[in-house]
Structure formats: C-alpha cells, structure tokens
Amino acid sequence: MGLVSEENQKGTAGRSGPESGDELQTPVLRISQLDALELDSALEQLVWTQFSQCFQNCRPGLLTPLEPELRALLQLLLWRFTLFSSSATVGQSLLSLHYHNTFSSSPRYRPLSRRQKLGLALLTAGPRWLKERSHSLLLCLGLNTGGPVSERDSGLLQKGLRSCLNLISCIAQLASLINFLVFLRKGCHPVLAERIVGAQAVFTKPNVVRDITYQYMNRELLWHGFAEFLIFLLPLINTRKLKATVYSIVFGGGSADGEGGRDVHGVWKECGLCGEWPTMPHTVGCQHVFCYYCIKSHIIADACLTCPKCGAEAGQPEPVKIEVEMTGRQ
Questions:
Q1: 11 vs 324: which has the higher pLDDT
Q2: Which residues pair with residue 313 across a beta bridge?
Q3: What is the number of alpha carbons within 13 Å of residue 57 lying toward its C-beta?
Q4: What secondary structure letter does DSSP report for 235?
Q5: CB 37 within 8 A of CB 120
Q6: What is the reported pLDDT for 19?
Q7: SS3 of residue 290 by DSSP
Q8: Which among 32, 138, 180, 231 has the fewest CB atoms less than 10 Å away?
Q9: What pLDDT band is residue 266 in, cutting at 50, 70 and 90?
Q10: CB-CB contact of 240 with 302 (8 Å)
C-alpha cells in the first residue's frame, strides 16, 4: 500500500490535472464518455487495418490462425503507450478526460495505480480473446473425440464445458447490460471493467467550458428536425404521379392523344416503364403498353399507380389484343 501511495503522489506531482476536490465535482457528460469509447475502438480498428496491410502481398489467410493473439497484442501495445503512461486512452485525451482512482479516500485527483491499469487492460482484452479462442482451447486440452479419454466421456466433458462457457458468457453480458443501465442512471462507469477496477473518467482541465454557442445548437436542431420531417414526408409522396402531372402541364395534355392517333405499332414498340420492347404486352386502360412483369410489380408496390406517360389512373393490366389481317396473293 505504501508503494501505491508513493506512485500516486508521483503521478499527481508530474501531471497537470485537477488538484482540488471542487474540480472533481464537475460531472462528465455521458455522451463524452461514450464518444471516448468509440474513438478508442476506431483507433484499434485503424491500427489493425494498417498492420494487416503489411501482409497483403503474402498468401491469403496468413494471419487468420493467429488473429485473436495479434489483436490482443496490438491492444496491449496501445495500452502500454496510452493508458499505462498517462492514465488516459487516446479517445479520452482528445476529449480532455482521464481516469481517476475512485478507491482513493483523498478528495483530490489521484491517477490509477499500476495494478488498476493492468486489471483494466486484462479485463478489456482478456474476455475478447477467450471468447474467440474457447473452441480451440477445448481442442488443445484433448477434449475431442481423438483425445486421451474415451469418446463418450470426451463428448460429455466437452458438452459440459461448453455449457459452462455459455453460462459464463450470458452472465457477463447480463452484468454488462445492468452496468450500462446504471451508467445511464448515474453517469459513471460505462464499461463494467471500469467499475470493477475503480476507474472513473474526469476532466483534465478545471472549469471546462462548452465552446458551442446557442446559435450553432439551434441551427443543428433545426436541420435535424427538417431532415426527420423529410424522411417522414418523402415516402408519402407519389413521385411518379407528380412527375406525370407536371409533364402533362408543361408539355400539354394533347401529347397523349396525338400519340394515340399515330400508328398502333409505333405506340406499342416500347414499354412505358423500362423503355424496351414489351414482353407479354399489357395495357392499363390508356394508349400505352407495358411489359407484364413491369406493370404487375409496380401495381403490387403502389396501389394508386398512374401511367408515367400520360398520368391516367392505372386499372387492372389486360393483355393487348391485336387484330391481324392475313391477305394472300392470287
């Protein structure tokens, strides 16, 4: 305990963090703590992407057998150069946060001890690695059918261990859920590992002031509200019917009649929806022809379908009937 106190005093003396109990009373926003976790996760993914690109010219699947160990190793390296040295992750540093030792009885800021930092790293990287390697560990212990024990005992033992691992995993997930609900209620410890080791996020600078003006916040709220209104409104608008109405107003209503007065083969040479030669041509009550599958799928999707060419209301599709007159030579 004496060594831990000396380390805490040294860490406090060499850090420009809060030094009075009043400064720790400023609560950290919940969204800031969650943003710090998201930034840490994005950094881990970025480091893994850069690391995997170093082996892109090697044979495919080279890193797959050792991927859990490599991810854990990279995560421990990040822990060594961020949390271990400064009691703050990269995401927390960007948001002017760092960890405070809640187990300390002093009202002033106290950094995490070595034991707390090590426990936080193990509780973060360990369960993920164990979850990804649980099946391989069972095989390495000789619990498969070809192991040193009999086939029946091996199967029962393997089934029992798997059930225990699944139960432990469910309990851990339930505990994480309860911890997150408590975090939403009280605003401390968004991750269960932080609550176990006694690490709480606090501000690194006293009297932190939001540099966001009310005008900016009002503008953002206005645009978000307008975007949500458009998302709600646009699916209710029949754009096809609106387009046909505008087309008929701009180009006149006689275009459809003039089109119908032309040769029937000229009118029926293309589908009114896809523009190709109509397959199994059908009509919906106007002078235009459509492929059967085109018009049927659009009627199923839109009960109030209108013709995209003339804007007429579409009825039930009917096959086109063409009278062909055969004339022979004498």
A1: 324
A2: 306
A3: 1
A4: G
A5: no
A6: 44
A7: strand
A8: 231
A9: low
A10: yes
CA atoms within 13 A on the CB side of 227: 6
Rounded-to-integer distance, Cα 192 and Cα 183, Å? 10
Rounded Cα distance between 6 and 8, Å, is: 5
Q: What is the DSSP letter of 304?
A: T
- In this prediction, residue 14 carries a pLDDT of 41
**Cβ(285)–Cβ(312) under 8 Å?**
yes
Q: What mean pLDDT is reported for the chain? A: 75
User: Which pLDDT value is given to residue 265?
Assistant: 52
Distances (CA, A) of 37 to 32, 40, 42, 90, 121: 9, 5, 9, 9, 14
Assigned token pair, 121: 């790293």
Question: What confidence category does residue 96 fall into, taking pLDDT thresholds of 50, 70 and 90?
Answer: confident
**Residue 48: which residues within 8 A CB-CB, separation 6 or more?**
70, 71, 74
Asked whether 126 and 41 are in contact (CB, 8 A), the reply is no
Q: Give the per-residue pLDDT at 252.
A: 60
Q: Is 255 helix (H, G, I), strand (E, B) or coil?
A: helix
Q: Choose among 317, 314, 307: nearest CA to 241.
A: 307
What's 231's DSSP letter?
H
Residue 140 clears pLDDT 80, i.e. is over it: no
Q: Describe the chain by its helix, strand, coil percentages, rounded to 5.
A: 60, 5, 35
Q: Please report the DSSP string for 188-220 in residue order.
A: --SSHHHHHHTEEEEESSSS------HHHHHHH
Instruction: Name the amino acid, one letter, at 300.
Output: I
Please tell me the pTM assigned to this model: 0.53
Cα dihedral sign, 25-31-35-37: positive
DSSP letter for each residue of 15-73: --S--STGGGGSPPPHHHHHHHHHHHHHHHHHHHHHHHHTTTTS-TTSSSTTHHHHHHH
